[in-house]
Amino acid sequence: MSTDPPMFALTDEHRAIREAVRDLCEAKVAPYAAEVDEDSRYPEEAAKALQQADFHAPHVPEEYGGAGADALATVLVIEEVARVCVASSLIPAVNKLGSLPLMLSGSEEIKKHYLTKLASGEGGFSYCLSEPDAGSDAAAMKTRAVRDGDGWVLDGVKRWITNAGESEYYTVMAVTDPGARSRGISAFVVEKSDEGVTFGAKEKKLGIKGSPTREVYLDHVRIPGERIIGEEGSGFETAMKTLDHTRITIAAQAVGVAQGALDFALGYAKERQQFGRSISEFQGLQFLLADMGMKVEAARQLTYAAAGRSERGDADLTFFGAAAKCFASDVAMEVTTNAVQVLGGYGYTRDYPVERMMRDAKITQIYEGTNQVQRIVMARQLLAGVQSEL
Questions:
Q1: What is the 3-state secondary structure (H, E, C) of 34-88?
Q2: Mean pLDDT of 225-233
Q3: Alpha carbons 209 and 88: distance in angstroms, whole number
Q4: Averaged pLDDT for residues 153-170
Q5: Tell me, what's the pLDDT at 9?
Q6: 19 is catalytic
Q7: Looking at the predicted structure, is the pLDDT value of residue 239 above 90?
Q8: Would you state the pLDDT for residue 387?
Q9: Mean pLDDT score of the chain
Q10: Do 336 and 318 form a contact (C-beta atoms < 8 A)?
Q11: How far apart are alpha carbons 271 and 151 in whole angstroms?
Q12: Which position among 13, 131, 368, 389 bears the catalytic label?
């Protein structure tokens, strides 16, 4: 039995990170959030501010020039950015998603080359797994990678690629052995500047309008052999391991946007007068706010617990990653919807941020595995006996 004192709170370092990101976001991200959404434009101001503060890819280890943030610190960064602008929170989140396959499976050479570039701000990293006919069934992908001398030639289409066109680097999953299904998939790094790489039009989306989502077209894209990530045929396993870790960043986004909506609803409820008194004095509204606060905090604690498992690489990470993402995103949708209800007719207008938060929250139930898929993942883990030590 450990004699170390138990830790039931964030460390001073983690609290300092939260405070620093919150101050930065209030000053340099929040003022542009409504405009970014209204104009469906990339949040350049947020991207610049996050990069200058080294929060654009905080997960990159110090040995590659990064901040070396642990999984919980990375969650705190993403949560705080999402609290004011979910689209902007996709900058650190997708940089982790796109580059984590290299950290998990890449050679030292590929990690040093690309993680150093990411940390220095030379370009972001996107993740190319989904295809037009391969969404939840990712193993059904058709993008091919064929050996050509010492290199590879890639052909195919990737869909729903976050920050496509903005990112300089892309982790691409492609079939190298068509007869082996998931064991025939390999991972590669493709660069935006590679000949044959083009992008489709930006999707017209319900929310996260400031984060471009495009198709990525690979037309006979020739890349050197050293750009394969890990061993040939290991790509699908790497992709699934990556999602175990990065689903927690989606949970962080969900917690952040839910907290942002709750914060605004609380402030409004205290100021809004009806029937001669503040609406916050009415028990019906108090019950609504209480449920919102309770569920946000439950989602936060589950997300932080999952982040701890991500950092340690615990055996129950798959369960906790799926649980945190699923629960927190369901909470985010409920809380942002209720925040609109608290504001009434005002909440339904773009003059107030809660309708944007409600629209942004919806995607957290869908990307990086729908919540229906998360429930399948959790059930399989439970049936296999993999859960926390109880």
A1: HHHHHHCCCCHHHHHHHHHCCCCCCCCCHHHCCCCCCHHHHHHHHHHHHHHCHHH
A2: 98
A3: 10
A4: 98
A5: 81
A6: no
A7: yes
A8: 76
A9: 96
A10: no
A11: 64
A12: 368
